What we know:
The protein has 639 residues and is α/β, with parallel strands linked by helices. The chain folds into five domains: 4-81, Winged helix-like DNA-binding domain superfamily/Winged helix DNA-binding domain (Arc Repressor Mutant, subunit A, Orthogonal Bundle), CATH 1.10.10; 173-278; 289-370, no CATH class; 397-468, Rossmann fold (3-Layer(aba) Sandwich); 486-638, Mannitol-specific EII, Chain A. The protein has 26 helices and 13 strands. β4 and β5 form a beta hairpin.
Amino acid sequence: MLNLRKLEIILELCENAESWVTASHFAKKQQVSLRTIQNDIKQIKNELTAASCVEFQAAPRKGCRITITDDAAFPAFKDFYYKQFTSSSMYQNGRINQILLLLLEQHRAMSLYDLENQIYVSHSTLLNDLKYVAEILEKYGLELLRSSNKVMIDGSEVNKRLCILDQNLVITNATEIFSGNSDNSTMDRIKNILVETFVSFKHPVTEATLNNTIVQIYVALHRMQSCFFITPTDLKITENLAPECEIATEVYQRISEVFFIRIPEAEIDYFALYMKGQGDFGRTDVISTEVDHLVLEALKEINKAHDIDLTNNLKLRIALALHTAPLIVRIKYDMQLKNHLVDYIRQAFPQGFDLGIYFAAYLQKIFHKRVSDEEIAFIAIHLYSALVQKQKEDGTKRILVISSMRQSENILLRQTLLNWLSNDIAELAFISPTEMSDSQLDLYDIFLTTEKGAYYDMGLAFYINAFPNQQDYLNLKLAVDGFKNIDDIASIFYKDLFFISHGENREAIIRRLCQSATAHFHIEDGDLQNAVLQREQLGSTFFGNGIAAPHPISAVSSDSFVAVAALPQPVEWDKDKNMVKLVLMICIGKNNTKAFHLWNYLSTVFANRYFAEQLMVNPSYHNFVRLLKETIAENSKTK
Length: 639
């Protein structure tokens, strides 16, 4: 029977049928030697010799590939190996969880012989599984200590419980507890204690918070009954926990009476800290000056990067402050929430999620701890709602052009603007940079400039050529109107900026797209690439379904465009080893807030499971534009 690695190689070849994939690609992806992959390929070749619907081919310097000889039978062939892969993967994951549970229940090192007998695997299989166990434990600050014949988990009790909860080991260990068949089950008694205590203290909670708290207490109780306790050295609490400590003391006093267990003070403090991190829904004065200032500064960072000013949106600031106060506790004490909708939010609200990354980056700078994508998704919802409200502003625009040209010289520009925007302009005025004052800022909606000087650099004015061309027209219409139809959207995908990439890694793809766009739009050498790479450092730009959308950390050009790279051979994009078939490098014009609407339309592409796959059938510019228009049009019909 083929192992997981060989099955994964076969499935990747099926996904990229007819395309050559190199052995070095598989070696890097699987993190094994080239010789190991070469041996795997030999076994795969023997395995597929009898297959009637495909032909396995290998060639020097090209790699290997699968060619389809029977289109009708191929889906069943692919499904056969997918089921094997799923079955093997689930079996191994189940073993790893079993190993984690067994080791977390030990007070001292466990012999490898006993571990092998308890999970019924060979010595070599166990050693291989322990590698995965060590990788999982590392995420929680835990270490797998091994000698020649013994193994144990080392680390704080707090981190061990985080591992149990995050890996869903509590469900594996206590399925019967959640069945709800017994009113006297441990879970039911914990629930009754919590509900009665919260009611007594008039402490409102959501249903989700209550359920999570029940599980939290259940795990703590199970660990304490097994003589695993949190110690004062595990905690370095700096928060004021007075109200939460009172509730936690009452809860654990009742837990102690019902389950006949003595509970140390550190356990009470940790539960109080947990409640603090869940948010205090019962108070109306929870927004401190410090939290409001932190939210305001984070919004200023967003404005600095994207020229989207949300700092005066008091409703947003209140919502973010109420969310951020408990989030700070969760960040500081490694209690960040899980969010099973993170992939949906990333694809459905990409601009909100991207702004959320900037918000989270500011928090990370303050607290020196990474904010998870799950937490960013919660922030993204608030930011997206504010964006929608901001984008509802309509009506004609008052336009001010800042220019050093004399009045006799700007006649052509004035007339051109009037011709282009006759139905959109309420007023068109010209002013020299020396005459510009703060009083002008509240009188006009859009500011243009014919010089890339101070007003352009500070993000106030949108650049326009003194003798405007078609590209200026497109940029200006986008600034005033946004996108009015599908053709408007398609117009910023340039044929000269569409590429098919073979064998390039992420850095090479980004470099190629940036260099081409720099030449096409006459951007300062290196500016675009540096800005895109800076954004990559903040977090992954993988948006799911084989699509990545790198973009500059801040605008470097007045032009809005998307450069595209189609990848017949998928490329590993980030540290999570997400594989990408399509790269959309999105560049929004400087000082052009309307162009940000593009993210809303591209969300339909990110959410389309088949877009990248359909493009690979015929990876051409015309096929890409056709699929783009069809996808956006189809989504528009459903709204």
